[in-house]
Predict the 3D structure of the following.
Amino acid sequence: MTQIAQARTAWAMNAVLSALVSGFGQLTDRAVVRLLAKTAALTLLVFVLFGAGLYYGVSTAIEAYGFEGGGWAGAALAVVIAGLAFWFLFRVVALAVLQFFADEIIIAVEQQHYPDAALQARKLPFRRDLANSVRGVGRALLFNALALPVALVLVFTAIGPAVVFLLVNAVLLGRELTDMAWLRHCGEPAETNPVPSFQRVLLGGVIAAIMVVPIANFFAPILGAAAGTHLTHRALANGRSEDEV
C-alpha cells in the first residue's frame, strides 16, 4: 500500500471514528431517547406480529394434515423460525422503521452541531420517506439473497459466511445511514451522496457489527444515523464528492 493510500485510509478511519464518537454523545438527548424507544418498540412489534402470524399459519397447516399436538408443534416451530428471522432480518426491519423517524435524529444532530444547515434542510414528505424505506428494504433483501450462495460455499470455513454478510451489509448500511441526512439537503433529482465511499463502508461495517450484539442492536441504527449525519455535513463542508456506491 502506497503512502498516499495509507494516509487516505487513516483519514477515513479518523473521520468515521470522530463521527461515531459525536453520534454516541447524541444518545443522551431527550429527542434521541424518545426516538430510540419508538423505533425499538415498533421493531419488536413487527417481529411479535410476525411470530403470531407464523404460529397461526404453522399450527393450522399441521392440524390440516391430521397431526396431533399441532398447537405445541406450531409454537415450537414458530419460535425457531421467528428467532432466526429476528437474527437475520433485524437490521432490515430496524432501518425500515428508522426511515420514518429519521428526521428526528437528523434534526437533533443538526440543531446542536450544524444550526445553519438545519435552517436550510427540507422535511421529506411521507410518500418520499415510504419510497426510501421500501427501496432500502428491497436493496437489503436483494443483495443479501445474492450473497447467500457465496456464504453457503464458504460455510465450511465457519467465519466465511459472517464475513460475506458483514461486507454486504457494510455497503448497504453505509449508504442508507448517510442518505438519510443527504436527501434532506440535496436537490431534485437527488445528486450524488457526497460522503466518500470508503467512509460509508467503514461506518456501515461498524454498525453492522454492533447490530449482531444483543441489546446494543437496538441503539445501533440511531448511532449510525447520527454518525452518518456528521459525515454528510463534514463532507459538504469539505466540498468532497465521490461516485455513489
